[in-house]
Design a protein that fits this description.
The chain is an all-alpha fold and 336 residues long. It has helices at residues 2-40, 53-79, 83-104, 110-136, 143-157, 164-202, 209-214, 224-256, 260-282, 290-306, 312-328.
């Protein structure tokens, strides 16, 4: 009787400990989400390739907390909501959130702060999922998969860049990859339409028209004029990609000279150019909305005119390709 009572009390302690941990995780996640946007406006870039002492310590503490959380999640997945482990996890998660805040105040630029904040949220959210499993279900087999999600989030977090330079480079290269993927996607679409046209010509008159209508499913193709426009539009996106790549050189030059204001300005301008290019790529599905694309092109041209980087020939190539779209095609003329 006594042993069963003790077991019941221990089980109750486990649940209560898990609930306290869950409350703390919910609080940390809410505070972090609310503060991320405010931090972006108060960031002060203070180092580039090498880290200042504050930022180095902040990142070291942050990475150590992630390692501890990963280890604790493994134990929680095996022994369930052990009270001492729940208290350890609470301390570790608070340490992680605090380190994230310190990093944002220690010279981290926008890209590094974004990566650290996102990774922190993912780790805390995954940990919350594990704790919710422990509270709602005491079966041992259900906890390890949730612990695995925590491990995965921790592994991703530990791959975060260790300097502002690496974070800025990763961000801009990600933009370039997005543009490259978009260009390749639409080139494949155009190529597939060429193949479909050839097959359609070969099989003309050999298949029942009812079957053709039945399997059409509303698929839209480019008109011949749109296909011609697409080649010019994709050339613009390619030129934008080259412009963004040149931004990396500009940022490194400014970083070497300790011109952090220049880095922030150049990055902000490049981010704006990428945003407009991304909007353009979203408009490239048939049928093309030429007036919308014309407006996007004018916006992009205006942003490029304000973009001050040393690679003037690359900027001029980008402007030239935009002007070809705006001036040579009647349906996208500047008067539309």
């Amino acid at each position: 009787m006594s042993s069963s009572l003790n077991a019941s009390m221990m089980e109750k302690d486990k649940v209560e400990s898990a609930k306290l941990l869950h409350e703390k995780l919910c609080e940390l996640i809410q505070v972090l989400r609310m503060s991320v946007q405010d931090r972006e406006h108060s960031l002060t870039l203070r180092c580039w390739k090498s880290m200042n002492e504050e930022l180095r310590i902040g990142l070291d503490v942050w990475r150590a907390a992630i390692g501890s959380i990963s280890s604790t999640a493994t134990k929680l997945g095996l022994v369930l909501a052990d009270p001492s482990l729940c208290r350890e996890a609470t301390d570790q998660c608070e340490q992680l959130a605090t380190a994230c805040y310190v990093i944002s105040k220690s010279g981290a630029g926008a890209p590094l702060n974004e990566l650290v904040s996102t990774a922190t949220l993912q780790v805390l959210t995954a940990m919350r999922g594990l704790v919710e499993c422990l509270i709602s279900n005491s079966r041992t087999v259900d906890a390890p998969p949730k612990a695995g999600i925590v491990w995965e989030a921790c592994d991703v977090a530990l791959k975060c860049p260790r300097s502002n330079r690496a974070a800025f480079h990763r961000k801009i290269l990600a933009w370039c990859c997005e543009l490259k993927d978009s260009i390749e996607e639409f080139r494949r679409v155009l190529l597939e339409e060429d193949v479909d046209d050839e097959e359609s010509s070969t099989a003309q008159g050999q298949e029942d028209q009812f079957t053709d209508d039945l399997f059409f499913f509303g698929k839209e193709n480019y008109t011949e004029i749109e296909r011609q426009n697409m080649q010019k539009l994709l050339a613009v996106l390619h030129a934008v990609g080259r412009t963004l790549q040149c931004t990396l050189i500009e940022l490194d030059d400014a970083g070497t000279n300790g011109d952090f204001d220049r880095i922030v300005l150049c990055f902000t301008q490049a981010e704006r150019i990428h945003q407009v290019a991304a909007l353009i790529s979203e408009e490239l599905y048939p049928p093309l909305e030429m007036k919308t694309l014309a407006l996007r092109m004018h916006t992009l041209l205006s942003d490029l005119d304000r973009f001050d980087i040393a690679e003037a020939n690359v900027l001029e190539l980008c402007r030239t390709r935009i002007n070809i779209v705006l001036c040579d095609l009647p349906c996208v003329s500047t008067s539309s």
